[in-house]
Amino acid sequence: MVTLSPRLMAQTTDTQCASNVPSSQACGYADSDSVAVSSGSEGESQSESQSQSGATASLGPNPGNWVHHWMRTVDKARASQPHFVSPIVTTHVMLVQQYRYDMYWQQDSVGGTVTSNYGASRGLEIIPVTRLEVGIFPPGYLVHQSRTPHGFGDLSFQVKFRAFSATEGHGDYFVGFFFGGSFPTGTPPNGLGDTVLSPTFAAAKGLGPWDIQSTIGANLPASGENTLGRAILFNTAVDYRIKGKIWPMLEQNSTFWSGGALDGKKQVFLAPGLVLGGFPIAGRLHFSIGAGVQIAVTRFHQYNHRWIVSVRFPF
């Protein structure tokens, strides 16, 4: 069966820092997958300050080179938005710079066999300018327990635009417009067989240690609509920050189809998960890891009990 992913595939020369946020949080290495901004303990702020010192040193002795300029752009983008962790399934409602590699194992709805996906349409995400993120996601490799042939899926991409945002203490919110899509590099059933475009509206709001991230968008086939149909995707993740390193979360992931083989059908999943990190590796490079499971709560579902492991390297 052809499946559509439940997720969409929603300043100056120097960094300007929020006046009531510690400088190590607002101006330093502040990727939300690695360093949480909070009014936490003095030890947490000191750790983040040390992370920023390492990031600055890692840029090398020539502060005028293009890498230094790029990293300053990244820091300005991070200092202009809240610092929420990336959910397990829901598209991160924030601009991020990282390499992400996900794997999942799902129980198929027919026969109870397991399909594994190594890569899961994640990959490199970079911030070229302060209001944009560009992501390129290599095809994942699918392995089936059934007689379905193994193979690579589709190449996909996403561009995020930050329309409005405010840091902690100044509103703690993010509003953006995303545009993504996939190209038919894989052969069905491992790929969709047609180009699919995915516009998305995304918003997030922080409430103390809590944050809510939500996206609503569509998968719109450029061809093959009679088979694939159109899909509306609505995802929401609620996260809770503990000590700036532990992020339990609960997500809902919904898909509604119009037209095509699944016309009129809908599926909804609840996905409890946990993300740990970020942990410094060297200079700007950090490491985070997360895991969760999607559990179907509607009678119709294309799969059930999808276990997900997500590895992130923010830089």
What tags apply to this protein structure?
315 residues; Porin; 12-stranded antiparallel barrel; 4 helices; 15 strands
Provide an overview of this structure.
The chain has a single domain, classed as Beta Barrel (Porin), CATH 2.40.160. The chain has 4 helices and 15 strands. The chain has helices spanning 23-26, 42-57, 66-78, 225-228, and strands at residues 98-108, 114-119, 124-129, 132-137, 141-144, 151-152, 155-166, 173-183, 196-207, 210-221, 230-240, 246-258, 266-282, 285-296, 303-314. It is globular and about 55 Å long. Residues 1-31 and 33-60 have low confidence and may be disordered.
Spatial extent as radius of gyration: 20 Å
Order of helices and strands: HHHEEEEEEEEEEHEEEEE
Name the structural class. mainly beta
The portion of residues forming beta strands comes to: over 45%
Mean pLDDT: 85
Q: How are the strands of the largest sheet arranged? A: 1-3-4-7-8-9-10-11-12-13-14-15
Please, what is the CATH homologous superfamily?
monomeric porin ompg
Instruction: Using the coordinates shown, work out and report the CATH topology.
Output: Porin
Largest sheet: 12 strands, antiparallel, barrel
Roughly how many Å apart are the termini? 38 Å
Count the E strands: 15
